[in-house]
Amino acid sequence: MSAARPAAAPEVVVIARELTRRFGDFVAVDRVSFEVVRGEVFGFLGSNGAGKTTTIRMLCGLLAPSSGSASVAGFDVATEAARIKTRIGYMSQRFSLYADLSVDENLRFWGGAYRLWGAELESRRRWALAAAGLEDLSSALVRELPGGFRQRLALGCALLHRPPVVFLDEPTGGVDPEARRRFWDLIDELAAGGTTVFVTTHTMDEAERCHRVALMHAGRLLALDTIRALKSAFPAGCVLDLGSPQPVVAMTLLEGAPGVEDVSLFGDRVHVVVDSPGRAAAVAATLASAGQPPTAVEPGAPSLEDVFIKVIRDAGARSGP
Q: Is 17 exposed, middle or buried (0-12, 13-18, 19+ CB in 10 A)?
């Protein structure tokens, strides 16, 4: 009986090593390193100005690194940018289609830009219309489409040439919840088919849908792992879930209380983050002394937002004043 063949290692398609970008004295991206594999939905999570877009622009060959190195689909971003651009799809934060052209005219224009002609262009054009749910709106002017439809069309245009890697920079900004859900369903389908999808976002629920998430702040990559691993690294017992007849009042009373790092409402419950385990009794006592005893104090699960805030706080503590 022959030995079982070992599983092949995932194919790495995006590599960054100490990637850095400066604008004068300002460091927009500070020595960022990571790898992304084929078929992965990789999320870059961070507030505006964290360095997410600058990193994507370097990986797409649109902006030269100040130092460090990176490769996409096997090509170096510094010396082979032109070859990278033919193998990626890129959807920028700003809507990049032509508002005065129809849906179909935009698809044909971008198909030509990607050197698709004849039967291949027709096949991909039909696919993009179906994927975007725009079969009945092919003759509509883009400026007349709702925001969610425009975003789906922009993604369809970016995918016309079947790129192995797709970069989506804040792809669902300004779209309604239903459109956002459909957009993410399409992202999941792409990844299942082997396309690597690189997404920047500052929305926690979107980050939850990524296979792995990189947490960025002030140009630095502070943490990188799966959502489950990131949450499991949060100290046990440092999140409490409180019941209260007046949750808003309870939240106000706990803000700034000793040992309380953060407090927020989760539905009709009060979500409390404390600085160390064993604070439950003290938190309950704080509310009781103000005439608002909690109806329940239970261990809670950390949210991704809790993790992100803690990672930023810990990084600040390490760097000092």
A: middle
Residue entry with tokens 């082997």: 194
Task: Give residue 291's identity as a one-letter amino acid code.
Answer: G
For 204, counting Cβ atoms within 10 Å of its Cβ (0-12 exposed, 13-18 middle, 19+ buried), the class is middle
Per-position b or e across 129-160, b if 16+ CB within 10 A of its CB? bebbbbeebbeeebeebeebbbbbbbbbbbbb
More confident residue, 151 or 161: 161
Is-contact 95 131, C-beta < 8 A?
no
Strand partners, 196: 165
Rounded to whole angstroms, how far apart are CA atoms 240 and 274?
Answer: 8
The CA-atom distances, in angstroms, between 227 and each of 1, 162, 274 are: 40, 28, 21
Residue 2 has pLDDT above 50, yes or no: no
147-158 and 118-132 helices cross at what angle (nearest 10)? 150
pLDDT at 227: 93
Q: Give the list of residues 6+ apart from residue 90 with CB closer than 8 angstroms, or none.
A: 56, 60, 158, 166, 167, 169
Give pLDDT, residue 4: 52
Which pLDDT band, with edges at 50, 70 and 90, does 9 fall under? confident
Beta-bridge partners for 215: 45, 223
Residues in the chain, overall count: 321
CA distance 119 to 65: 39
Each residue of 213-251: pLDDT tens digit? 999 999 999 999 999 999 988 888 999 999 999 999 999
